[in-house]
Task: inverse folding
């Protein structure tokens, strides 16, 4: 019998069900053209993205700030694709998103995310960017929507060029 650890207790919150569970879609590039090189060394691109039906699952728990606990934290399910390769520290885009949201809003709400990874890491499918966008949306929702959609998209752009796409819908 195979056990799916998405349904096992959280390492932080035990049997308490998450306050919010969201799916983070993968994306594919339908079209990509390099238009030229910018002064900053990056390339100017024209592209067309489409989300596809491959998803990571993110569970979120919120609680009042507690000085003995970090303001944001995350865990990865043991059955996640390449679970041992996924960092849960500040180098993870989910953690960067939660930190950026906290900084922008001065939110003192504690957030914990459990990531179940199905999108291959570094596979060009935007999994990390999608997870970060989902974390921003979740943080905003759980805090009562202190940021407008435009403000959230601007915050997403600071995290990476693909992050804002995942807040805007299925095709861009």
Result:
């Amino acid at each position: 019998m195979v056990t799916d650890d998405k349904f096992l207790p959280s390492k932080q919150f035990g049997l308490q069900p998450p306050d919010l569970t969201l799916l983070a879609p993968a994306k594919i590039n339908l079209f990509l053209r390099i238009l030229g090189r910018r002064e900053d060394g990056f390339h100017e691109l024209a592209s067309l993205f489409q989300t596809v039906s491959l998803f990571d699952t993110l569970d979120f728990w919120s609680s009042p700030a507690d000085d003995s606990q970090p303001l944001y934290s995350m865990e990865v399910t043991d059955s996640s694709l390449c679970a041992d390769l996924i960092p849960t520290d500040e180098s993870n885009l989910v953690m960067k998103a939660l930190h950026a949201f906290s900084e922008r809003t001065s939110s003192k709400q504690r957030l914990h995310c459990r990531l179940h990874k199905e999108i291959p890491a570094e596979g060009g499918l935007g999994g990390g960017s999608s997870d970060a966008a989902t974390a921003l949306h979740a943080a905003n929702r759980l805090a009562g929507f202190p940021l407008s959609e435009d403000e959230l998209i601007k915050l997403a752009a600071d995290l990476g060029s693909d992050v804002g796409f995942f807040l805007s819908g299925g095709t861009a």
Q: What stands out?
A: The two ends are 42 Å apart (CA to CA).
